[in-house]
Amino acid sequence: MGVTRRHLLRTAATGALLAPWLRHAVYAAESSPQVSSSGGRIAGTFDQGIAVFKGIRYGADTAPRRFMPALAPEPWSGVYEATRFGPAAPQAGASEPTSEDCLFLNVWTPACDARRRPVMCYIHGGAYATGSGSSPLYDGVRLCRRGDVVVVTLNHRLNVFGHLFLQRFGTAEFADSGNAGMLDLVLALRWVQANISAFGGDPQRVLVFGQSGGGAKIATLLAMPAARGLLQRAATMSGQQLTASGPLHATQRAQVFLEALGLSAARSAAVATLPSERLVAALSARDPFIENGALYFGPVLDERSLTRHPFYPDAPPLSREVPMLIGNTHDETRTLIGKSEPAAFAVDWQQLPAWLARHMRVDIAPEIVIAAYRRWYPAYSASDVLFAATTASRSWRAAIVEAELRAQQGAPVFAYQLDWPSPLEDGRLGAPHTLDIPLAFDNIAQPGSLTGNASAAQRVADQMSAAFIAFARSGNPNHRGIPRWLPYTLPRRATLVFDVESRLADDPRGNERRLFEKVPFIQQGT
């Protein structure tokens, strides 16, 4: 599993630079894995026989170029130890170090050889506001051991640092500010294309997959010309992006943010020099378009890096040939709503209309929805109807739209639904948002997993992780451990339903789909 000095002399790759807090070059011990790149030599560690490199720099410090596209890093001399994660992007409520110098990625590989393994590049969730690539749930050791693949996770700019749209305030250098975070992802994927062969990966078999906000970022990447050719498969897990923020709405949000900082439009350029802590504090300002919500910052239709909406009015033609896997969990909002509002688990029938009106995010009479669900599912409680209807109307709804637009386009697309319920909290969570992360990574025993680590959880993890590995390898998720998984086509709508005993179902929850498809869906924040 190690890399010899002779192999190092033969290895060809291109640049990566470690964090500035690792300024002193150190020579790694003979037992550590090493990679040579055009930027310099990198030394990692071994974890259960897997070579692990943490905190590899793919972009320069963004602080001197706040709100602008990041630059490639400068090369270095000596050997740097890639043994700890780089800081996350500045964000509210972070539980790990943060910095504007945040463009780092992490690599797990079975060996730094010439095998050309499939690459599984994961983009973290947290909407466009929070998160990082260093969660224990994203640890790549078990995927590498199970499927002989290379795993990559990464950090990038978030919230205002990645999406404060200043283009219309007249400062030319900030013309790309609305999508700086998305351009970070493009830069990271360029690093993968240039370097991953030195880590035993195949730059022509790159799966980009992500959950929640990570899936939304991937949907956006599929519509960005700058990302074309950088990914060969895409998988979104409970994360969709039908539309981007329009430039006028994004400008109004920027205005609200500037006012929270005490800046006028004429002094907008000063936001580039304020302490990052002040910017993070101002994120709590009320959004002008989302009722009772903090400011939303996400991708913007800026007519530069993003010249069309990701999935409106159709699926993006430029990524038509990229196979796509689109999935959701059966009970998304049991954590999306229930985690922040525990009272949702005790809602009664009298309270239910008001709760639905507040949480469905589509304009339909709650009484019509309640009557339909009571007819379809007479055993459901009021709380059950709340979670089922809000999942169908807002989380699952956008996934269905993306799958159907891809099917109409004739593009390769597979759909899944996770039905297996979490055993935690006496089962009241059902199959909630984030449940599929440890299953896809085969990391059910990691901190933060909602799966528990019983045999049933492992059986579902065996099926899901093998499907993601198969998809990375060939663009087809089928493997011997699941029923034959057919592509999603119209009008059949074949969907793989993951459970202890998984099954292929045609148009699962079709009654719920038909109820909500008669009303327009507007992605929150856009």
Description:
The chain has 526 residues and is an alpha/beta fold. The N and C termini lie far apart (48 Å). It has helices at 5-10, 141-147, 159-163, 180-195, 213-221, 247-260, 276-281, 333-336, 352-359, 366-376, 382-409, 436-441, 455-474, 510-517, and strands at residues 17-18, 34-37, 40-43, 45-47, 50-57, 79-81, 104-109, 117-123, 150-154, 201-211, 233-237, 324-329, 413-418, 494-498, 503-506. The strands form 2 sheets. Strands 1, 4, 5, 7, 8, 9, 10, 11, 12, 13, 14 and 15 form a 12-stranded mixed beta sheet that branches. Strands 2-3-6 form a 3-stranded mixed beta sheet, with no helix packed on it. The protein is globular, with a radius of gyration of 23 Å. The protein folds into 2 domains: 5-237, Alpha/Beta hydrolase fold, catalytic domain (Rossmann fold, 3-Layer(aba) Sandwich), CATH 3.40.50.1820; 323-517, Rossmann fold (3-Layer(aba) Sandwich), CATH 3.40.50.1820. The chain is built from 14 helices and 15 strands. Helix 9 (352-359) runs parallel beside helix 11 (382-409) and helix 11 crosses helix 14 (510-517).
